[in-house]
Amino acid sequence: MTPTVACFDDETEPAGRLALALGAPLAPVRLHRFPDGESLPVVATPASGTVIVYRSLDHPNAKLIELLLAADAWRRAGAGRLILVAPYFCYLRQDAVFAPGEPLSRDVIAPLVGAGFDAVVTVQGHLHRTHDLGAVLGKPARNLWAVDPLADALPVYASPPLVVGPDAESAPWSEAWARRLGGEAVTLTKVRTGDRRVAISGDISAAGRPVLIVDDVASSGETLRQAIDLTRTAGAATIDVAIVHALLGPRALRRLRDAGARSIVSTDSVRHPTNAAHLAPLLAQAVTDLIEGP
Q: Of 134, 153, 177, 192, which has the highest C-beta tally within 10 A?
């Protein structure tokens, strides 16, 4: 039986694209807020035993509570299987205790989500020290790469670009980009001293070449701005930027363009003016594999 795709009101567009890709009906969640700020999600009775819940978890603090309450409501309404499609998955960056007094956020939040859902699909989760998201969730998980959708949204290159990753963790992804575009990859070095304080360094040669800078998450935009400065100084002919999860605000976006970015593209994992790559086909295939798999 065809599953139902469920979503909250602020994500009907990307959820609708997923529903269309799956050939499934779309069922919005009705959200009520009490005067004291508590949330009450009200879900529709599922048309089948499987509900695909689309909820990207940027601005996660309110979204998480509403999502977990809705998961309980779907179970009570008859859903036998809940699959969460969260293109952006929150609280994975704090995957270790970096300083005394801090929590290990990954190991608090991921099991909470895993307790509410039977499987999770996400896109390039912030998994620097986490090799198996499913093990942390306690449920099957798919962590997808967005290279192909983003590559299709880029300008056409007359010659293969130099693909630049901003830090060591980006190396596997930047190398995948280089294979996709027929170019070569180089990885920079990043030292972070605060949420908005980073230092980017690297010895590269980009004289007269097109450059593509790739990043999984951009929030303050400072990492990308410094990478643009470095590649421009190295002689890049053009500089394009591809971001999986674009969380940066208007001022940060303007700084990237002023620094010399010819184009900036992102996926629709999070609503943003740079959204140019739709993830629905990629997500739909992963959901289908989960439904039809063992």
A: 177
